[in-house]
# Entry
Amino acid sequence: PIMYEEKPWLKFYEPHVPAHIDYPHSTIPATLEETARKHPDRTAMIFKDNQISYREYNETVDRFGAALQSLGIQKGDRVAVHLPNCPQFLIAYNAVLRIGGIGVPCNPIYTAREMSHQLNDSEAKIIVTLSTLYPIIKQIRAGTSLTHVIVAEIDTYFPEPLKSQFAMLKEKEPGRKLDISGEANTYWFTDVLSKASIHPEPVEVAWDDTAVLMYTGGTTGVSKGAQLTHMNILANALQVKAWVNGSENDITLTSLPLYHCYGMTCCMNVGTVTGGAVILIPDPRDTEDILKNIDKHHPAFYPGVPAMYIAINNHPDAKKYDLSSIRACNSGAAPLPGEVQQRFQELTGARLVEGYGLSEASPVTHANPSFGENRIGTIGLPYPDTEVQIVDVDTGEKVLGVGEVGELCIRGPQVMKGYWNMPTETANALRVDAAGGDPWLYTGDIASMDEDGYFRIVDRKKDMILGAGGYNVYPREIEDVLYENPKVLEAAAAGIPTAEGQLIKVYIVLKEGETATKDEIIAFCRQNLAPYKIPELVEFRDMLPKTMVGKVLRRELLKEESQRQADKKSSAM
# Structure
């Protein structure tokens, strides 16, 4: 239909948002270098009140890049970054990209099993980890392709007197101080830096070279590495900057985890392209720390997930802090309830709008205007240079009109070049239509578009559960673990909607003659899954509803749940 040619959403763009951006033929680390050259003394990072300049940041990236090269890293090699939000994350990430390596961000709360999969799939040669996370790496190391391990400490960039207090605490508490002296090919981050050359050997980095493997669960639950190129991540950072009207004086509050695509782009990389500062918050659940940092350092931007805004709304001392510096907040990763939005805006005076993205698109593709017409319940308008169409779910070929519901398809400069070593999954996700041109990314999300070009997600990816903290949880990951329990015959996991979000529930059929308790099942999951994937509810059943070919019908289980909740409500009336 002609309406896609016309891009009806353009007329709702704010005056500062261009329909097209001229993307410089550059990279994120080159942009960092440029800012350091022009504004060496400007603050790049704020960590526990310590301010790190662009000069120090860029010089440390250079040194760390040289260190990685001295350990054998060449163009195209993968380096895993296994850290919370701290200066070493930004240094390692940019150093890997600067020398033509491929960064593999890893979730610090992954279990040994989850880490093994990611390291083996990416064939990472080096991992940069934290001293408190080292035991997991030590445990799995022999079964991976890791040749070297670099261990960072959280207090390296603490300011005084906090640093000395922390050191005293480590001396006092046995077990707090890690000893790696006997471990082969294992080094402290600070030692590696001190011995490195000032500059790395120059490497030719092309725009379409893979920069990052961003692991995503995908609808099947098998973790896939989305190959994001240097162009993808730079383009998306520039799209976000244009959308929020970012300038070099802007400070971004960074409590979104940087190993996640959303934090990587909307906080770290946007900070680099605007040349502003990022405030690093290592624990996103520490609302007090977030409030203190807003009060003291006056950030303009605070990207987050609904749970973060809810935590501020409900904090007993929120009104004691000056939160008035915040201009714009983009909420993603989970549906944003209208009342949360309204309350946060009243409390801070900021604009809080909902957007949409996915790892395969670096991640942002849509957002409500930061200061223009915000339509609650929608994901807003497509970003500059982003083409969007809705296609029928059955064939994926027929383009649907205004108001019709189908699969959301996207193409633009932020869309990945494919999945790492997964040609079949790549062919399913990226498809060229009859008209030719760049492939469309089939998102697996069901959506519709209104006549003004505002989009609405009708249904999240088929079975995905939004766990605690807005993390994506794929039922199959939980089910695969449950099937390893010798007592379990069959298992299914689903997200049960509640007022607060979704609770993870598992349905279990035990083998004949076996008995088990809810606590036993949860304890088993706790050993094998990250905390946000652990089920809260367990139901034992004689059988699970299935299709003719034996596939478990999750929608039947959810239908039963909603019926149960409706019955409860009516009996309470």
In short: The two ends are 49 Å apart (CA to CA). The chain has 17 helices and 25 strands. The first strand starts at residue 43 and ends at 47. Residues 554-572 form the longest helix (19 residues).
